[in-house]
Amino acid sequence: MTRSTTMRSIMRRLRLRGGGDRTRARLIAAGALSLALVAGGTTTASAAGDVSPERVVRQSTTYKVVNISRSYHVRGTQEIGRCGVGSNGTTCSITKTRGATRSIQSSFGLTRGAVAAGLSITSAASVQVSVGCSRKINRNQVLVAYPIGTKYRYRIRKTVSTFTGIRTSKHTSYSRYLTAFSPGGASIYCVVKSR
Length: 195
Known about the structure:
The protein has about 200 residues and is of the alpha+beta class. The protein has helices at about 5-15, 20-40, 110-120, and strands at about 55-75, 80-85, 90-95, 100, 105, 125, 135, 140-165, 170-175, 180-195.
């Protein structure tokens, strides 16, 4: 039976029976059901809640030290030894120095040790310097020692991976450029300065 035949049959029954609004409503409802069956056999109800959004199954976050550059560096802001003399032309020697500080910057809440591992250095806060230096200086001068080491420049990459039942997505972000200084234990830089 086609849609047009069904509709003609319903209209004919309405004209023949007359009747009230209740009778007409029952006939129209029966006709709508017949049309649905003719069109596809069955009907399916859908609601806004039937389609669920993607559900997050698991998230994981990883960090990596990237864009690393290294350079020879004298830490001129960190004095680790000093000596002076009482008369001109006297040799001044620095034989004992303070520990040189190792500095490591971080971001994203990453630990100092994790950043140090990414740079392949130890995370210890200081290094004992085992060498000294000597110069002939005048009484109005001083001999000052500074640590020598490697300066690092780098960024930290943060990757958040989200796993759902449908797909996997990744979001990557980077820190600003950070610096670290790792002093050497067997070298210092000595310079003569005026008092």
